Amino acid sequence: MDGAQRTRVSLLGCVALFIGALHAFSPMDSEFTFLLPAASRECFYQSAVQNGSIEIEYQVIAGAGMDVDFSVVSPQGIHLVSEFRRSDGVHMVESTEAGDYQICFDNSFSRFSEKMVFFEVILDHPANDAGADDEWAGLGEPESLLEYKLDDIKESMETVHRRLERSRQMQTVLRAFEARDRNLLEDNLWRVSFWSCVNLLVLLSVALTQVYTVRRLFDDRRRVCS
């Protein structure tokens, strides 16, 4: 293989790696944290393709009771998921229809307490995988000119991509759990501090009352003796 062919092989490999990285790390999911007011309902819409999948995970990270009503409605208006007074949940919608899915959080049962809700939507787009495979196959021609296998490179990059995505998702979920635990700790700390102050005031009041009562008894005895 002469120098020109080696240069061509190197360029093809670089282009293949670049395009594969673009496909591997293209945004396919989203996450959002929002404040759900009391006695209100918020809905979000997620577009989906035919025969794909949607994974939805949510958590209530702040607010009294730490619970909301959750529902998922298909583009045809069919209720796929309905949950009531839950603090978290994970749901998978397989074989999706083409259209917009409705994701709703309902806090209408709470008249005074607002809730902070975190949710993440992960999409699986089969069309993107097929297109990526076609591009990889096209870049691999002619295969006799390549000194390495593009299929092995593609498989390795996809494995790394899946692990990185899973790690990022786990970190996001752990951050949501951390925020929820921190809010619970702050709420419990306020309650403990409040009742500790109340108990301290009660103890001081009782002690002062006892001292005053004892002094009055001694004063009364002195007057009787005199």
Automatic annotation (TrEMBL):
One cellular component (GO) term of this entry: endoplasmic reticulum membrane
Cross-referenced InterPro entries: Emp24-like, GOLD_dom, GOLD_dom_sf
Locations listed in the record: Endoplasmic reticulum membrane; Endoplasmic reticulum-Golgi intermediate compartment membrane; Golgi apparatus, cis-Golgi network membrane; Membrane
Annotated GOLD domain residues: 41-123
Matches recorded under Pfam families: EMP24_GP25L
Keyword tags: Endoplasmic reticulum, Membrane, Signal, Transmembrane, Transmembrane helix
Membrane topology listed for this record: Single-pass type I membrane protein
Parts of the chain that traverse the membrane: 192-214
The keyword ATP-binding belongs to this UniProt entry's keyword annotation: no
UniProt record similarity statement: Belongs to the EMP24/GP25L family.
Organism: Onychostoma macrolepis
Stretch forming the signal peptide: 1-24
Keyword hit for Ribosomal protein: no
Record-given protein name: GOLD domain-containing protein
